[in-house]
Structures are given as C-alpha cells and as structure tokens.
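Two records follow; treat each independently.
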Amino acid sequence: MEHKIIFAGPVGAGKTTAIQAISDIDVVSTESKASDEVSKRKATTTVAMDYGTLDVGNGQKIHLYGTPGQERFSFMWDIVTIGGLGLVLLLDNTTEDPLADLEFYVKAFQPFIKKSSMVLGVTRMDVKNRPGLYSFYTKLDELGIRAPVFEVDARERSDITILLQALLAMLDPGVKR
C-alpha cells in the first residue's frame, strides 16, 4: 500500500530539508537559483516540488511531496495535493509574522485540510522562541482547525518522524507506531 503526504509552508520553513532528512531515496528536487526577494533569505528555492519516499515496512511506502513556498507557484499546490493523505505544514518562527504565515497557508490549503488532516511543525524556535507553540495552537483554533503543533528541527529525522507519526495517528488512530 502506498500513501502520499504533502509538505507545505513558506520559503525557508524547511520543507526540502525535512524531506531530505526522512527520505529513503535521494530526493528529487526542483531547486532553482532564487531571484527576487527570496534571494535575500536563501540561495535556492523550490519551483515545482520535492519528492522522496519513506518505507514504513510490510510493503507500505509513503510518498513525500514538498510544495513550493512562493505564492507565485501556488498553481502547484492544488496539483501536488491530488491524492494526498495529509498535510505537514512547516513554518519558520524567525519570519516577520509567523502567525500570519500560518493563517495564509491554512486558508490556501483549507479544501485539502478539510478532507484530510494536518500537523504543524514550527522551525527555528531555537533562534526565536516567540511566538510560542501555544500561540500557534490558539491561532489554529481561531481558524477552526484542530491539529497538533510541534517545535521541530527540519534537519532531524527524529523530529520529522514525530510529525509523520502524529499525522498518521490522526488519520488512523489504530496505526502502529
């Protein structure tokens, strides 16, 4: 059995890094040299998608798809979510307004979230710890979304594993961890 999980969020939140940390294959990436304002934050950016896989045993595989973070590539968001099981939303806590980022991406992916589930991973909290996790949880509640919220380091396989386990448990409470 094969499943598809989507990673979304703004530029620099750690989507590509998270997929690289957890994937059992070399990640297929569409990174291109950043132009515009993105180049001030990072040298490259995803322009179509990232793809990796995770073998979870018993012949089951999870396909991992990362969406581009820039709104100008938002046409890919609907394409990539087709057939998706759930959403891992990653946010960079060092941006100017991470709670506004949360609202933007929840609203952008709302049709997909309503028919599946999501988890929220907040990155770079070691650099900037405010807003705290409770603020993200409260904002999700205001948006009518019930989702677990975690502090994560996108480079750490164990952190991304926890996100995926939480998402899978929400989708199927009987899932073995």
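The next record belongs to a different protein.
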Amino acid sequence: MKKITDLQGTFELHNGVQMPYFGLGVYLSKDGNEVTNAVKEALNHGYRHIDTASIYNNEKGVGIGVEESNIERKDVFVVSKVWNSDQGYDTTLKAFDDSLERLGMDYLDLYLIHWPKGDRSKETWRAMERLYNEKRVRSIGVSNFLQHHIEDLLTEADIVPMVNQMEFHPYLVQQELVDFCNQKGIQYEAWSPMMQGKIFDLDVLKDLANKYDKTVAQIVLHWDLQKGVVTIPKSVKKERIISNATIFDFELTPEDVQLLDSLDKGQRFGPDPDNFDF
C-alpha cells in the first residue's frame, strides 16, 4: 500500500519523477477568470498538481493562474493532453508547442494521449518519446487506454507510459486494468471520481460519510488514494476546492475499501474507450 500523508504527497513514477497524488482537474472550467481563480485558490491552499487538456480550451487561464499564484512554476505539476484531431507525429509536436504557448510555460510535467486512436497513437507516442528525450516534458502517458490499447502501443514503444488516466469510481473500478498497470509500472489516475455527481445518491457512501464524519466526496477521494490511484477532482468553488482536499486526517478500514470495491458494476458515465466517435 502506498503511503498517503498530506496534500503535497507524491507517488513516484517509473522514471523517478514525483507526481502529486492529489490535484485539481479543470474540465469544463471556463477559460479566463473562472479557471484562473480556481487554479490560484487550489495552489495557494496547498495543491501542487493541475490537470488540463488542449480540448478544454482553458490552458491560457491555467497558465495565468499558476503565474499569479504564490507558488513557483517548478513546484507545480502541470499536465496537458494531445487531442484526437492532433494525433500523429508532426501534429503532436505542434500541438505540444501550442499547449506550451497557451500555458506560457517552457515545459510540462506530464503530457498524455487523450484517447486511443490505434496506429495514429503509435505515431503520437513516437513524438511524445522525442519530447521526453529532449527533456521538454518530464513524463509521458496515456488516458482512456484499456489493456489491449496499452499492449498494442507497447509493440512499438521504446518507453512504457508513466501514467494511465481513466474514468474511475465505485461503479467502474476495473481492478484487472489497475493490476495490469501496476505490473507494468504505469501509475493509475482517476477522472470523474464523483460519477458526474451520481456518487452523492448512493446510500453506502452516505453511511460511510456518517461513520467517518466526512463528506461523501471526501470518502471517495480518500478511497482513490488508498488504492494507490492519483485523483484530480474538479471544482471552481473555493469551499469545494478546500473541502475536497481535507482528507488526510482519517483512513478507511480495509473492509470499507473492499466495500466500495464491491460496488463495481462496469458502469461508465463517460465515453467507452472501445466505442467513441470523436
């Protein structure tokens, strides 16, 4: 079991880079003041990990938030992703440059392939390996890759992805995929940990929240971390940003971790990596 200590704690990626295991996601956060203020609030409250993507159309605001915070760039773990229409070798290199320009930064801490696109993703990965070898990005990884997508990528890859960011919550645990990634040294990361808000309707979660005197969100986020899964809850509200991170003063019993695991029903609230059309 990986040790969970505090908001600035990290998991070590297989190349030795320390990745803060708790961060702020900015999906659907509007560019401009909304996302800039959320990033500043998070960083000034102690967060050290910000996750964006080119398709979110808010990289500029994220960059301004990092710059205007009280935290130095080198102390913030910044993530972005290459979108599907930019996949391919040359187009990925350009997309990376464009993301850096919007962010106002000269490197990224992690760059991800946003969705698996078969052979095009192999070309994308070759470009990402180049960016990594040129030290323009500290780590590279994938998002929404099932086991067969990763195995296919590895037939031509020189570098094993450092991270796989997946939809992950009590209704979609995919323990076999988690185990496969762990065996390969690929850090698992959760998106949509709150099941797009549906988590708050589950009686099991309400009972656990009462038992530990925590909120439903805090229970789920701590469950992520106890399972060794990086988590990046999204919020633009100051109170929620602070509340989400107030999870380091308790621990779920092994039985309660298993209880949440047992809710798994393979149910997605986002797109299926094997069946999407974008």
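Discussion point: Residues 71 and 263 are 39 Å apart (CA to CA). How would you locate this feature using only the token line?
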